Amino acid sequence: MHRHSAALCLLASSALTEARSVVALKPRDVSPLSVPGTPQIIANGNFSNGTYGWESSPAGQIRDGLYCLTVPASASAGNSSYLRTTYDFLETKNDIYTLNFTASSSVGFDIIVLTPDPPLDPNLNMTAPLTTSLHPFSFTFSPANQAPNATLEFDLGGLPSQAQVCIGNVSMKRIDRSSYVQDVGPALKVNQLGYLPQGPKIATLVTNSTNIMPWSLVNSAGTMIAQGSTRPGNVDAASGQSFATIDFSSVTQSGTGYVLRAGSAISFPFSISSTLYEPLRQDSLQFFYQQRSGIAIDAALAGQGYARAAGHVQILPNQGDVKVPCQAVHDSLVAYLEPWTCNYTLDVTRGWYDAGDQGKYVVNGGISAAQLLMEFERTQHVGNLTNPLCDGSLRIPERNNNVPDILDEARWELEFLLKMQVPAGSPPQLFNGSLVDMSGMAHHKMHDNQWTPLPTDPSQDPKRRELHRPSTAGTLNLAAAAAMAARSFASFDKAFAQQCLAAATTAYAAAKKNPAILAPGTDWDLGGGAYSDGDVSDEFYWAAAEMYLTTGQQQYLTDLQNNSYYTANTTTLFSIPSGFSWASVAALAQLDLALIPSNISNHSAIVQSVLDAADMYLAVQRNSSNGYGHFLTSYPWGSNSNALNNIQIVATAYDLTGNATYRDAALQALDYILGRNALAQSYIRGYGSKVSSNMHSRLYAHELDVSVPQAPAGSMAGGANEDANDPPANDVLQGCEPMLCYVDDVNSYSTNEVAINWNSALAWVVGWAANH
Length: 772
Ligand SMILES: *[C@@H]1O[C@H](CO)[C@@H](O)[C@H](O)[C@H]1NC(C)=O
Ligand SMILES: *[C@@H]1O[C@H](CO)[C@@H](O)[C@H](O)[C@H]1NC(C)=O
Ligand SMILES: *[C@@H]1O[C@H](CO)[C@@H](O)[C@H](O)[C@H]1NC(C)=O
Ligand SMILES: *[C@@H]1O[C@H](CO)[C@@H](O)[C@H](O)[C@H]1NC(C)=O
Ligand SMILES: *[C@@H]1O[C@H](CO)[C@@H](O)[C@H](O)[C@H]1NC(C)=O
Ligand SMILES: *[C@@H]1O[C@H](CO)[C@@H](O)[C@H](O)[C@H]1NC(C)=O
Ligand SMILES: *[C@@H]1O[C@H](CO)[C@@H](O)[C@H](O)[C@H]1NC(C)=O
Ligand SMILES: *[C@@H]1O[C@H](CO)[C@@H](O)[C@H](O)[C@H]1NC(C)=O
Ligand SMILES: *[C@@H]1O[C@H](CO)[C@@H](O)[C@H](O)[C@H]1NC(C)=O
Ligand SMILES: *[C@@H]1O[C@H](CO)[C@@H](O)[C@H](O)[C@H]1NC(C)=O
Ligand SMILES: *[C@@H]1O[C@H](CO)[C@@H](O)[C@H](O)[C@H]1NC(C)=O
Ligand SMILES: *[C@@H]1O[C@H](CO)[C@@H](O)[C@H](O)[C@H]1NC(C)=O
Ligand SMILES: [Ca+2]
Ligand SMILES: [Ca+2]
Prior knowledge:
Elements: E1 54-57, E2 61-63, E3 66-71, E4 82-85, E5 89-91, E6 97-105, E7 109-114, E8 125-130, E9 135-141, E10 147-150, E11 153-155, E12 163-174, E13 188-189, E14 194-195, E15 202-206, E16 214-218, E17 224-229, E18 231-235, E19 242-247, E20 255-262, E21 265-266, E22 270-272, H1 278-290, H2 299-302, H3 329-336, E23 360-361, H4 362-381, H5 405-419, E24 429-431, E25 434-436, E26 442-443, E27 445-448, E28 465-467, E29 470-471, H6 472-489, H7 494-513, H8 537-551, H9 554-562, H10 570-573, H11 586-595, H12 603-622, H13 639-657, H14 660-670, H15 727-732, H16 749-752, H17 756-769
Parallel strand pairs: 14-22
Antiparallel strand pairs: 1-4, 2-3, 3-12, 4-11, 5-10, 6-9, 6-12, 7-8, 7-11, 13-15, 15-19, 16-17, 16-20, 18-19, 20-21, 20-22, 23-27, 24-25, 26-29, 27-28
The chain binds 2-acetamido-2-deoxy-beta-D-glucopyranose (12 copies) and calcium ion (2 copies).
One calcium ion is lined by residues 391, 398-399, 401, 403, 405, 408.
């Protein structure tokens, strides 16, 4: 055991008490969207076949290839007069379309061009100022919602006096991505941030040669400081690439601008530094401040480009989050096949926006807050650590309140989670045809009833915000996270710690009373993700473990011991090989039961299960078909978080034993996220040479609108997804090898989104790595 009493709270040199200026992000040249060239969507747009495919009010006629109407004067803009297509076409959510036409009016005025189809949102809702001479117009737009039955309409209302309006050459096409070529970077793949002086230093060379090749390490002055021979490898199973590895662990000299060379391949530059992970430790947590709901983001803390008004504080056009109703019956009927609703509203302000959207989901918020609490709590129990997470370490409003800043950040989410609890004594709610007392349970999630477009500033989101039905999973997640918070806050804010424990206790009891209220498997794309989970026995296990660790009470230990996970094998407990996640949380219980002191009788068996799990990941890393030293055997949505959660297991094995084999394995696996992968891609903004930059987020859709910023340094993309499914991925990733299924495109939500549970995994691992 590798334990120590209370950790020192020393500030690392990088952790200044005042805001440091945000890393200047190099403005990216905004390349024009590639010229559309996919099939014409508008039939007979040049009117060479008469009025076929079009209708108008009033009726018009074709003249010189133009559709011309005599439009009467009308008081207001709108569809009092119009020209529109008579057939339906598909508008795909998050794809990109360009519309061209030429038009004139004998009296100058503005017309509106739109796709007036439900759900009505500003997919295409553009103003074209007509003049007396024909003028070409061109609009590019990205639909926020799927519209399988779209029509195109020119609204001609608002003319000051009767006039001749003529429209011609109407053309609409989907973006043409056929010229896209995937950039796999240099053949020599390294961690582009760098390596720790006393850590492992492994690189991967993609090569078809099975011969041993010489390599050299060159410093920034061009001087060769080390050389050696490659170790020929196999074919990497996840990329199909033949590879060799380069081990330069013996180099311990710090420096920046190193490059590796082998044959004609030259790596991206990297550093060797003992403080390598300190800036990223801070930036990975800074991401959460940027995701905060219910508070203005301060330019002095976040950087000028990242300031914004408070989101969702019930100021129009926002419809929440101070008084949020339950889902409207016409929507809940679709989701639950019964008219569930409730007769109260809740103040569910605060919390973090989940990902690229602005919804807030209890199961995902809970695991994210929990991982931050775990990052803090390990510093209390692992020996020899200073605590660089203390007050003043983050650029957040609470940086001078005598509470460690990582706890302040976690609290922003916890306060939201507590508000999602059904008030005591609430009237019963509908579940499977019966009225059930759901008091004390947590609503599963709250979000917009329809998707908003990219970008959308949170303060400008006009959609209805809705609470969804309480769920057992959400309730247990709240119980676990709040029980953890009660431990960490006990020495900083007793009242809050007690509030958390009371909420956790109520939630836990409510979940036991309602053990099988499951969220539906789909939300029918009604503005949010389903976050459904068909098995909540792992949630019961996690909640019981945290309640026991916090209270020491026998009732929770009994529940823990009666849970099937108590006797489950390591594979089941740790969800090996894919790893733990928001839906599979037994591993979190096991990690905390191993690390946090308690009187549990089988403590050594629990510790052993962590080591056994770590050994299974070591076997994945050492497999001869693994060219990149990671702990992944599959590439699901958000695979980077799976990679990192698996590292947390191995890193905890090191924390528990001090066995350097685990330390080296965990550090080596982290290289994958920062560029030692088949795409030579650093998935973290601000860290590396070939860096994910066009993350899918309503906050950071710079690729679509240069007036919003790219994601801030420390934001991580979801990463390779072997089942990628979104418009850019469907165009450019057909038939990809799993590790190559990634595209740095703002519309690729299945490979390039940001998410709180992914950055929390990054924060934990980088917080750990910064200690080494
Ligand atoms: C009108 O469009 C059709 C279909 O794209 C094309 O074949 C035809 O040549 C065009 N006619 C004129 C006059 O541009
Ligand atoms: C042209 O219009 C006629 C009806 O007026 C229609 O039957 C025909 O299919 C159209 N041709 C094309 C190529 O769309
Ligand atoms: C005009 O717009 C209104 C409101 O958007 C709609 O209810 C109506 O059906 C539209 N009229 C026509 C002729 O499309
Ligand atoms: C379309 O744009 C007009 C003018 O900007 C705006 O008033 C209207 O609310 C928009 N409609 C939708 C559905 O966004
Ligand atoms: C939309 O089109 C689909 C087929 O593409 C059809 O099944 C559906 O009924 C249509 N919906 C509406 C509202 O017209
Ligand atoms: C439509 O486009 C064609 C091809 O560019 C051009 O020759 C023609 O003049 C245009 N017609 C109108 C009415 O703008
Ligand atoms: C729209 O017009 C631009 C400029 O003339 C042209 O490059 C583009 O191909 C056109 N797009 C469509 C969909 O017709
Ligand atoms: C290795 O061989 C494959 C198949 O011939 C080829 O596609 C690939 O480009 C080669 N890779 C390198 C790095 O030369
Ligand atoms: C604690 O840190 C010191 C200095 O870095 C080191 O010499 C010592 O071995 C460490 N002790 C443990 C138990 O890791
Ligand atoms: C909700 O329902 C309960 C019991 O049916 C009732 O006492 C209460 O007044 C209702 N509250 C509101 C806000 O309608
Ligand atoms: C672990 O338990 C699961 C579920 O009971 C079972 O399917 C699996 O085969 C077991 N694995 C091992 C290695 O025993
Ligand atoms: C450290 O862990 C590795 C991997 O499980 C194991 O092979 C080795 O024996 C351990 N070393 C010690 C000193 O326990
Ligand atoms: Ca603080
Ligand atoms: Ca589960």
